[in-house]
Amino acid sequence: MTAIRTFLDTNGLVYAFDPADPRKRAIAHAITAGGGEERLIISTQVLVELYSVLTRKLKPGLPAEEAEGAVADFAGVPTVPTDSALVRAAVALSRSAQLSIWDALIVAAAQAGRCTRLLSEDLAHGTTIGSVVIANPFREV
C-alpha cells in the first residue's frame, strides 16, 4: 500500500511544543509520531518558521538550543527546498488563488513534494488548490 504524501504546515509542528492547548498538542504529537498511511513532507520554510515561532512567539518560548534541537529533529523529514523556481510558482499561485505569498509558498511546496493533502489551520479546510486538498487537523467537529 502506498503512503499518502501529506505536507505539514508549521503549526502542525509548533503545537507539539505548545503547552497552552493540550488538545492541539496531542493532535500534533499524533501527526508527527509518524506511522499509519501518511508520509509527512515539509519545506525549508517550515523549518525556518518553526525556529522563529519556538523562540520568539511561543509563550513561554523555548531556549534557542532547544529550538535548534527541534529543527534538527524535523530536518530528517523529507524536505522540499525553497529555491527560485518554488518562489516563482508561489508568486503565480498567490495571484491566481488569492493567497498571501507565505501561504502560497506552503501550497507550492506541497505541490512540488507531490503531496495530495496539506495539513494546516491557516487555510480553509476542505479547499482544493490544484491537486492538494487542505485539511485542518485542529478544527473541532
Describe this structure in words.
The protein has 141 residues and is an alpha/beta fold. It has one domain: Rossmann fold (3-Layer(aba) Sandwich). Helices cover 48% and strands 16% of the residues. The protein contains six helices and six strands; from the N terminus they run βααβααβααβββ. A six-stranded mixed β-sheet has the order 3-2-1-4-6-5. α3 packs antiparallel against α4. It is globular and about 40 Å long. 32% of the residues are buried. The mean pLDDT is 93.
The share of residues in extended strands comes to 15-25%
Q: What best-fitting shape do the alpha-carbon axes yield?
A: globular
Strand order of the largest sheet: 3-2-1-4-6-5
Rg measurement, Å: 15 Å
Largest sheet entry: 6 strands, mixed
Overall tally of domains: 1
The low-pLDDT segments are: none
What would CATH call the architecture?
3-Layer(aba) Sandwich
CATH class: Alpha Beta
Annotation, overall tally of beta strands: 6
State the secondary-structure class: alpha/beta
Q: Distance N terminus to C terminus? A: 29 Å
**How helix-rich are the residues, as a percent range?**
40-55%
Round the mean pLDDT to the nearest integer and report it. 93
